[in-house]
Fold this protein.
Amino acid sequence: MTPLELRSLLAAVGEGRINADDAHQRILAELKSLPYEDLGFARVDHHRAIRQGFPEVILGLGKTPDQIAAIASRIVERGHPLLVTRADEAAWTAVHLRIPEARYHSTARAITVGREVSPGKGRIAIVSAGTSDVAVAEEAAVTAELMGNGIDRVFDVGVAGIHRVLSERDRLSSARVIVVVAGMEGALPSVVAGLVDVPVIAVPTSVGYGASFGGVAALLGMLNSCANGVSVVNIDNGYGAGCIASMINHL
Amino acid sequence: MTPLELRSLLAAVGEGRINADDAHQRILAELKSLPYEDLGFARVDHHRAIRQGFPEVILGLGKTPDQIAAIASRIVERGHPLLVTRADEAAWTAVHLRIPEARYHSTARAITVGREVSPGKGRIAIVSAGTSDVAVAEEAAVTAELMGNGIDRVFDVGVAGIHRVLSERDRLSSARVIVVVAGMEGALPSVVAGLVDVPVIAVPTSVGYGASFGGVAALLGMLNSCANGVSVVNIDNGYGAGCIASMINHL
Amino acid sequence: MTPLELRSLLAAVGEGRINADDAHQRILAELKSLPYEDLGFARVDHHRAIRQGFPEVILGLGKTPDQIAAIASRIVERGHPLLVTRADEAAWTAVHLRIPEARYHSTARAITVGREVSPGKGRIAIVSAGTSDVAVAEEAAVTAELMGNGIDRVFDVGVAGIHRVLSERDRLSSARVIVVVAGMEGALPSVVAGLVDVPVIAVPTSVGYGASFGGVAALLGMLNSCANGVSVVNIDNGYGAGCIASMINHL
Amino acid sequence: MTPLELRSLLAAVGEGRINADDAHQRILAELKSLPYEDLGFARVDHHRAIRQGFPEVILGLGKTPDQIAAIASRIVERGHPLLVTRADEAAWTAVHLRIPEARYHSTARAITVGREVSPGKGRIAIVSAGTSDVAVAEEAAVTAELMGNGIDRVFDVGVAGIHRVLSERDRLSSARVIVVVAGMEGALPSVVAGLVDVPVIAVPTSVGYGASFGGVAALLGMLNSCANGVSVVNIDNGYGAGCIASMINHL
Amino acid sequence: MTPLELRSLLAAVGEGRINADDAHQRILAELKSLPYEDLGFARVDHHRAIRQGFPEVILGLGKTPDQIAAIASRIVERGHPLLVTRADEAAWTAVHLRIPEARYHSTARAITVGREVSPGKGRIAIVSAGTSDVAVAEEAAVTAELMGNGIDRVFDVGVAGIHRVLSERDRLSSARVIVVVAGMEGALPSVVAGLVDVPVIAVPTSVGYGASFGGVAALLGMLNSCANGVSVVNIDNGYGAGCIASMINHL
Amino acid sequence: MTPLELRSLLAAVGEGRINADDAHQRILAELKSLPYEDLGFARVDHHRAIRQGFPEVILGLGKTPDQIAAIASRIVERGHPLLVTRADEAAWTAVHLRIPEARYHSTARAITVGREVSPGKGRIAIVSAGTSDVAVAEEAAVTAELMGNGIDRVFDVGVAGIHRVLSERDRLSSARVIVVVAGMEGALPSVVAGLVDVPVIAVPTSVGYGASFGGVAALLGMLNSCANGVSVVNIDNGYGAGCIASMINHL
Amino acid sequence: MTPLELRSLLAAVGEGRINADDAHQRILAELKSLPYEDLGFARVDHHRAIRQGFPEVILGLGKTPDQIAAIASRIVERGHPLLVTRADEAAWTAVHLRIPEARYHSTARAITVGREVSPGKGRIAIVSAGTSDVAVAEEAAVTAELMGNGIDRVFDVGVAGIHRVLSERDRLSSARVIVVVAGMEGALPSVVAGLVDVPVIAVPTSVGYGASFGGVAALLGMLNSCANGVSVVNIDNGYGAGCIASMINHL
Amino acid sequence: MTPLELRSLLAAVGEGRINADDAHQRILAELKSLPYEDLGFARVDHHRAIRQGFPEVILGLGKTPDQIAAIASRIVERGHPLLVTRADEAAWTAVHLRIPEARYHSTARAITVGREVSPGKGRIAIVSAGTSDVAVAEEAAVTAELMGNGIDRVFDVGVAGIHRVLSERDRLSSARVIVVVAGMEGALPSVVAGLVDVPVIAVPTSVGYGASFGGVAALLGMLNSCANGVSVVNIDNGYGAGCIASMINHL
């Protein structure tokens, strides 16, 4: 039973087409059924859509294409939207064979199947510091879009040329949540958070070399931000940022 | 001009007691005045209350009691609410001398002067894993309360006895944002985030010994959370978490 | 002389088929012989089976296929069970040529030849947090099975959906030792150890990205576990965990 | 209801002195009562004695003497054994005032109140590398003794004079579990584990200077042990090691 | 022979008051004398004033007050300017006793004796992010002033309120070299360097807490700066920055 | 409008060929036009040439050959000099197709198009410790040359044979700025800075193995230099060092 | 039996004063006696003098003054030389009470009782980079002197003034082994090792601040030395270096 | 002029075949010639053979095959012995083409050309812990052999089976210097050093996985050795260890 089916069922009750007690039994049965499906190598958590408003998302990393495709099929069969992150070409091929309507976002390395979901209330700005941060920024954007949010992409506005971000102040101010993606010294979230009064989700990227230590310098910079309103997710975790931004935008 | 004065002014315009053009001039003058006050050793950012809805907050760490008291006076004189974090007894004495209405929260190590501020929309749950995490949890609570939010404290529900957190599921579910404070392995935010569908702000604490490395173990655990909706602030940064939670709760 | 041959010899003495003095001499001769066999590049420790109840195990990492096959042959010739860990396809080919009865466990990357060994007293539960942890979990399972233990695999029960592990409480409670394998934040051992009263061997895996630092986040999480009864082995060391679990299960 | 009261109750049922249904009701009532007692700053987990065979243990670190004494009183009132670790003189004074029968182990920095508990099956050897490791070794010993185990202390047998540990081989071999405590390079657990066939719980200590990094060198040495049967707990975590050793010794 | 005495000597030669050959001999004698004075515990490098334009500077850290005073006396006796860094009150007392004209800069923790030195060509701006960074900024300022440079202090202009640094653009643009001192995320040098076309010397400070790791976060942020023209010195090394800025300003 | 066009325009005004007011308008229009060109994935900062004396430089790392070529074209079309760093063969091919006059420096992995720029005042010495440091040293040299500086290469003068660097003392002394490139222990900048009185820009390289940790050992050695005048850039950042050296040499 | 007593005994045999068989028995008895004396908290390894030419040395760190004095008494009673390292004033007081002939070296923080030992063959040079490294250098010198070696102290010859070390080339060249003690960047051992052809034992010190990380920078610099013949001991381990130098000098 | 030619020359002087003044002149000329040969990308330090008894050794890492072959040719042309370390097949091919008498040691990845050198006084034992450490142990052995030392290889005697190393006690005791090569926990040097009274050069290897961190665990273990006489070289630096051992063995 998808959220949409649930809504239809309740509507039918409201309209007298279905008896309240019958509906009660159907919903209870659904809820009391096993909250996950055991594929042996994975337990697909179908309950998550009810519990958290969005079904399980597949992290492609460390899974074989076959495992990814099998889990994806189960999710799509239930009528849920699909999101596979960190999906390479092999994973895409395997999923596409089984789910023809799936779509591949090559920059974001994500596979999606869209469904009608409840819309976010405002717009989410996705801001990136440099051209090399775009892959992670796109992962955040694809995630938040699939979850029903309007997205405003503000790319390549790093702090070395501060006029670039200052000139986008209006777009930043009109967002309800802002995701800021940056590598190297990771200073952009501090500057952005100082300009606005909405929450900023900072995503450090592994962009850089030498003492950037694969994103650690950016991560530390963001955790130590002197500006209010900055919280941080894991290095390169565009998905996580998009997901949190969507949660906030649905409040 | 405080936000309240601004509101009164606009009301007066609406009621015809003040001419719109005059009001326009007064507001412009206020806005165009220097956005900060230079004390030599510090620039007090009075503009922040307009820009971000809450005035500058004083981090007590690394400032002398006199510096803290001087900045605090300037903030209170403008009619702004006051928050000093990481304030020891010496700072408290210095501030109290100048600002008799100030209040000291000894567990949270915070000094406050409350003002009427716009209220948050829901409740913020502040969850802590152990007794030793309470100081940081209280810093978050005092911060969020001062910013106009209702707080629900859910303390000492660490994952080693999972029934403790499960038995508080209802309180967690009824919050609009959740701050989770934990030291040691920092696993509690993952478990909490798996139970709810609202954003979780995770605060690692420096509680622990040996390989906890002053909170690094908890920090890494939270950054690598397998659950959706967890973003992280600096180790022991209860203030930051309270502030972000308030921002979200005001959306 | 294998443990089985020793048992036969002693039985024969008990039945009067062999004179006690002769048996004494044979056993002494065996014990006093060189405790290892020197292959030039390696000293095969045949004494270990007597000293520790299980013969030397070959870590495939950093050895050539030929070296692995040569050591493996010597072990099998003595009638000992064989375990090669971290064995790639090349190692498997080289070993298989010399030891046709060997078996390859591709998920666990292990080569085995089973022998009759003394059985463990209870069951060992092997628990894993995610699909990507299965390789390490299988290495633990193959190891413990070869050492004579009954295994119960409880896979993909990570803490983000806490109901998954709670619903397996009975299987966990009925094990005599539990091996818990987890990457990312490594929180699962804390939760499991809080549910049971038997020792938990925690195995961090290198699964994750960014600030998981190749398993360091999970390792630290496990070392700082707030639950009783958790001890930890090296990152990805499924073999070590299986071996300790077997030792405990034979007590 | 303590485990001993439970045993008496069941005995009474067996002897016909109490009706089985009545006993059933009393046990159920006990089990269904709140599994913890909420002191505001702490939730005392009285259920743990039933779940894990030993009640909650108080980690003194980061708690005030008053908090420690309050929690300790609740535990002792229920008839449970008491263990406070990392207890300084102030904590001891506060506890002693409320619980006169408590005992202070100054080397181990532990406070205990003993109760009759189920005895362990064999002996636990506590081995330490140097004189400076004794505090941690004693914490392990006090813990395991309180939990009902016989202890054999084998102190100051570091690997720089290998004859010291070799001359204690018999004592090591006759233990059912071995706890090995070592700082500096942490090599002792590898040598001990190579001599015996029982599990070795390794405890790194923060003893050393310079590149010992507060016990990290010893911790890494133990995690990378080339010997079978070594699992590791946190730096200086004598309590954890004693607790795991006791669990194993009760199997 | 101080640089000034050398200049006088050469002037006297130019004016015919001293014979060129005699002057040659005197200078050679001076140069060929031992290039350092051996105090047993220290070799005072008097040659450095000739080689590098400024005499040896005394790092107070790890030296006793007596050692500091003894070295200081030797330097002042030669007519050189004196700079002692990281000088606590005890060092100051010992030096003041021997050198009454010395001066103590308590914020900068520096002791100085000024001498006429060659003047720098432009002004050096010393910029700091927060009130807590002032000690290090002052160390840089005192150093550069003693070395003959005009200083412009621009304090408390951190990036969280970007208007503070933007409003000082003119002062920044008119400096010949800029020293930027910042703790926490260390983002200020990147922003400043993007606004000007002169070299920026970045000084990370140990200001911050938690994941600032005593200045490491700021250090990494500065090393990874995306802006041109930023080079970095050690954490809290105000002296080093002032010295380099002076060298550049004398080119 | 390039700097050269600007100079022509002003000359024309001076010679009366163009009216001052018209020139004023043309310059203002240029300045007020968008300070960057938005390519979607990148914002080319054409303003930088006016603001900082040299246009935007392209870091090849993390950009596709097509992106690099597109940005490069825009820069060259404006009449600016071009520098692409970390450019592999694929990037070179893509750029060469669009910009036939570009030149590839294979050791330095840099692509350049030279333009007339304002000349530096003195010479820049580029010093390297070992043969393996040459790639980074060359990146610094190519950068500084393109920016109008005379370069003196002093290669392979590491401290293990101190006579090698001592014998080049004259060349070092005659430079106005020195860039020192070294891997392994990174000691060369300390020795060089002790010999001269000009600023030394130290570049750690990732050359070395084992405990060199990809250049961290050299980086730390340079940050902790006991010599005056050493500031440091990121590991392998030859470009940054060349750029700073040029800035200083243009003062 | 001390080495001297052994020598007397053998001389008596050689001179016919004692029968060879009797001597044989006495020596065997001595050798076969317990190789250590068990004080409960420590096992004093009297055998070490025979095995390694010098008796056990007491590391004062982590031992109480009473423990130190007790072990020291046992060593001196056997006629062995005494060395206590890291001995503070309290330890010295306790030892002096029991062993009046003991001597305290306050700079080196060492307690010694000298005995006749076999002399080293050449001289050991102890070289230090700065005044703050002297404590560690003196620990090395006191150790090596007690072990029978002639010492040449060459202090404060750091690489920032390379002429200081070059001017001591002759003293360095005439040593048979060289100990080099340095903090900060730790470059001195590389330079010294490039000047001589004898082994250099490098000792990093915890001298420095910021990114010296308590001696880690110096340690890494020394491990990555580009010069031949440098081996390294732990941070601040003057004792270890003196001991190794003595071993080499006795070969 | 090679060392052998020098010896012939002096012999001729001794026998009156060459006039002492002439010889003086020839030697002076040789010494005064440039101490290195400049190949552009490298300065070959021919003086090192005179200064340190062995010519420059080529580290293959980071050099092209052509660079290696060019430097190697210059060294061999001077009559010096050749050692190239970290030489892959491509380097070997390039060197072999130019120097047919060169020899490739594939396990040690070293290229050598032997010459008559002065012999070491005793034997050097090269001890390794495991089969996977052999490549590094062989690099040490090849180095020390080329430098004129007799080698005793004692391989695969790790501490998990302590009888393996104890049974080789006699070979260890008869060496004049011992090189001990070990990965994982790096405990072998401590055990070996406790058995002998000669210097032990410890070489950590990058063998291991997980928390061995590429040899860091072994490195820390060795630096923190509780045994006397252990000094340490860089991870995998078999060459360095062989070289130091040879230096000591030539004293």
